[in-house]
Amino acid sequence: MAAAARVQCHNNTSFTGSPLPRRHRNSSTLHASPNRVNFTPLKWIGDGSSSCARTVSGRPLKGGGTTTVRAAFEEEKKTDAVNEVAEEKRRFTCVMKFGGSSVATAERMREVADLVLTFPEESPVIVLSAMGKTTNNLLLAGEKAVSCGVSNASEIEELSVIKELHLRTVKELEIDPSVVSSFLEELEQLLKGIAMMKELTLRTRDYLVSFGECLSTRIFAAYLNKIGVKARQYDAFEIGFITTDDFTNGDILEATYPAVAKRLYDDWMHDPAVPVVTGFLGKGWKTCAVTTLGRGGSDLTATTIGKALGLQEIQVWKDVDGVLTCDPTIYKRATPVPYLTFDEAAELAYFGAQVLHPQSMRPAREGGIPVRVKNSYNPKAPGTIITKTRDMTKTVLTSIVLKRNVTMLDIASTRMLGQVGFLAKVFSIFEDLEISVDVVATSEVSISLTLDPSKLWSRELIQQELDHVVEELEKIAVVNLAKGRAIISLIGNVQHSSLILERAFHVLWTKGINVQMISQGASKVNISLIVNDAEAEGCVEALHKSFFESGDLSELLIQPRLGNGSPVRAMQVEN
Ligand SMILES: Nc1ncnc2c1ncn2[C@@H]1O[C@H](COP(=O)(O)OP(=O)(O)O)[C@@H](O)[C@H]1O
Ligand SMILES: N[C@@H](CC(=O)OP(=O)(O)O)C(=O)O
């Protein structure tokens, strides 16, 4: 990231300003001008009437007469003003998002603040998630409130955990507890309200979980101010993050980009301060109520800001050394993947790698902004850099992703409808019921597909919805429903699909595993295999050993030959 310190201006020259107000900077620099944090000392200061005048940039002025000198000086001032506006617009260089694990305690908040200050040439926008497990605790507290009775709402264990964590944090960071106290009181009132109503709607659920990010960002901004770094807290739903009204899973609307850019730039021009923005939250465009972007949605907040401000880089700081070859909690010998394309990262996230939010690559890809995944516990690790393209010549497999608890449906046509009508009808049933389909394999008269469990909120609902789906499908087909399946997604270069499949099937055959369905995504980076859930972890481990721990697979790549016998050139996958 240090390399990114040099900021590229619109006019294609570069400057090395330090717009980040920081404790090391003297206050006269900071307040040199209300609109400028970065004050470039003039090499020559005067009224421009001297015949031996030099320009502010130190170049001798052409011509000697007073009028000429003054005119040239005025001209340079104008150019400066234009450049200054260009510079001001380029004030923010990157967005730095820190997840819950990165800001779990006071100690972690201190370390994150130090980390931000380690890059003195950067001028970041900070995005934070809720501290540690706060989102989970808020959700549990809400669920308990529904049935605990008003008089017991204050005693909900998770409420005490949340209060204790945030009050301890402000105490340890030596900041004013009023930063959080009114929020904690309001949270308790909200839980009493839920207890009184005996219901927790999705809208209330979103409002409830928003307390997590509202608290963490207020604490962090107060801490930065305390250590002399001027910072300003923002609730995303107040600064233009406009979403659909799909509570718990809001989709960012286009209007967000200009609105967020305007607000952050305007505030910066008026009174520069490091923005500290709540991740995960938005405002429904019709209801004007607080929405959330789906679990892990702070990544999406960060990439949205990156695109809105046209930043140089989007950084997402996690508790792992980047995107790994598989989930380290499934198999601990996973290793970092240094480079990924947006396509690979999106596919990986969509198929269940918790490390990135599934939608978060979209704004980065649209804005052409590189995303760097780093470890806040180990900042020296290079991490993963995600870009539009990368050299895929030697890439076979990049990562293995496991999605558990998947339901598979085999749907065979009763031939009441023609081939086209059959497929259309099947998918319209899923559309009507708003059920998301993950992996599909189809023949003329039968379809096998899997349903995404995370799109359905609770277990009861899953059963209810499944019954409904089967009922509808049985009007046109014979349906076989199989629960307890898992999707193993092999993310890599599908140009080498034969090699990938040969390896994968050999490994699974050796283990006596029966693959129940296979699908190759149109994205050209994903091959999905469906196996029994109970066998899935063992499969991932065996596949990992074979693909990543037994020599360089690229050496096995046989240069494909064209018809005239010449080798195919190195391939660059375009997304
Ligand atoms: N392929 C993968 N690479 C890295 N981490 C993964 C992968 N798959 C799953 N994970 C999990 O994602 C976690 C990091 O994501 P997340 O919990 O969202 O971090 P944060 O809360 O810090 O944003 C890791 O601790 C790891 O367990
Ligand atoms: N706090 C929210 C949003 C988020 O992005 O969290 P994290 O960055 O810790 O995954 C959640 O837990 O879903």
TrEMBL record:
Q: Which reaction does it catalyse?
A: L-aspartate + ATP = 4-phospho-L-aspartate + ADP
Q: Does the keyword RNA-binding apply?
A: no
Gene Ontology CC entries for this record: chloroplast stroma; cytosol
Localization, per the record, is: Plastid, Chloroplast
User: What is the recorded function of this protein according to its Swiss-Prot or TrEMBL entry?
Assistant: Involved in the first step of essential amino acids lysine, threonine, methionine and isoleucine synthesis via the aspartate-family pathway.
Family (UniProt) = Belongs to the aspartokinase family.
The name this protein carries in UniProt is aspartate kinase
Specify the taxonomic lineage: Eukaryota, Viridiplantae, Streptophyta, Embryophyta, Tracheophyta
